[in-house]
Write a structure and sequence with these properties.
The structure is a single chain. The radius of gyration is 21 Å and the shape is globular. The longest helix has 11 residues. Helix content is 21%, strand content 33%. The strands form 3 sheets. Strands 8-9-10-7-1-11 form a 6-stranded mixed beta sheet. The protein has a 6-stranded antiparallel β-barrel with strand order 12-15-14-13-16-17. Strands 3-4-5-2-6 form a 5-stranded antiparallel beta sheet, covered by helices on one side. α4 crosses α5. The chain has 346 residues and is an alpha+beta fold.
């Protein structure tokens, strides 16, 4: 990551190909009812060109996938990590019995371009104008709320613009046919965006305290432990896979779980804490009173804070702000402190 990429994400806009995303289309007259019983959020409640962040859980309430779902009118489009693409396509097909539902994997034909940063609205608007698309139509980009989307055409090419804010800063995903991706990216860069790397995105994501799948969340994690239940789960909809576990925790257990994801900042009293190369490994053990108590899932050097920050899981009794734990770096244990997130405000 260079300083230009980092600055773009904090004060301008950055553009990147979302190469680690897969796209699954769910068609048929029963598509909404079908997904309503499989995903955690209220799919049936989505109006046309509305969307939501949701999860696919296993029967034990553990997280198998997180995804964005968008209602495109005659299609429900799922934007999901490519690491679970095959699993999810197979699972969706397996559960079809008499329902009028058809599953199509669009990943080979479609690609998504991400635009992130405080100026991303202006960049998307200007980029589309550079392409010569009806500018009056695209004034609505500025009005998109979180998880809303819109569809448009450039000559024979379809584009779907969705607001996701997925890494913390304001951000959009623009889905288009693969043959048009380079043209789209060049237009966005001409509009003022800076080409950015996965590394730069990851730094800003961690600064924002946003957990990523499958880095910070996997099939061993219950959504409540990761702190994502408020935005990913509807507690008023009907049944879905894994619901019994979630309801039991929230109602009988009053939301208490054995561990939680917390923000962790390297103690500024630690010698050489300003050396960005001194990063603990992802997955490193977290120690308290010489006992292994948790693990570090994400870690980075924050240029804005001149400090190492990360995310990790700790037992519930050790998650209070100010709790001190230890992490091994270069063969020696150094101090980290439980810290509220986001580390860096937008």
């Amino acid at each position: 990551m260079n300083s230009q990429e980092y600055s773009a994400l904090h004060s301008g806009s950055g553009v990147i190909s979302r190469t680690k995303r897969a796209f699954i289309a769910v068609k048929g007259g029963d598509r909404a009812e079908y997904l309503q019983g499989l995903l955690t959020n209220d799919i049936k409640g989505l109006s046309s060109y509305d969307g939501c962040y949701c999860l696919y859980l296993n029967p034990k309430g553990r997280l198998e996938a997180d995804l964005f779902a968008f209602n495109l009118g005659n299609v429900l489009l799922l934007d999901v990590s490519s690491s679970v693409q095959r699993m999810l396509v197979d699972r969706l097909n397996e559960f079809i019995f008499a329902e009028d539902v058809e599953i199509e994997d669009w990943t080979d034909q479609w690609v998504s371009c991400g635009v992130f940063g405080p100026s991303s609205i202006q960049t998307v608007d200007a980029g589309l104008k550079i392409l010569g698309i009806n500018t009056e139509r695209f004034s609505v980009v500025r009005e998109l709320n979180l998880y809303q989307c819109l569809s448009m055409r450039f000559e024979e090419t379809e584009l779907i613009v969705a607001r996701t804010d997925e890494h913390g800063p304001l951000g959009f995903s623009i889905l288009t046919e693969r043959s048009f991706a380079e043209t789209l990216s060049k237009a966005l860069i001409s509009a003022g965006a800076v080409g950015i790397s996965d590394e730069a995105i990851d730094v800003v994501r961690i600064e924002s305290g946003v957990p990523a799948f499958p880095v910070d969340m996997d099939s061993e994690i219950i959504p409540i432990e990761a702190g994502i239940s408020e935005r990913a789960i509807s507690f008023t909809k009907g049944c879905y896979v894994g619901q019994e576990v979630i309801v039991r925790i929230m109602h009988r257990g009053e939301g208490r779980v054995a561990k939680r994801l917390v923000g962790l900042a390297l103690n500024k009293g630690t010698d050489s804490y300003k050396v960005p190369e001194m990063l603990p490994a992802r997955g490193a053990t977290l120690w308290h009173d010489d006992k292994a108590v948790g693990r570090l899932t994400s870690v980075t050097w924050s240029p804005k804070l001149s400090q190492v920050v990360g995310l990790g899981y700790l037992p519930r009794l050790l998650t209070e702000t100010g709790t001190k734990v230890m992490v091994e770096i270069d063969g020696q244990r150094v101090g980290f402190v439980v810290t509220p997130t986001p580390f860096v405000l937008p």
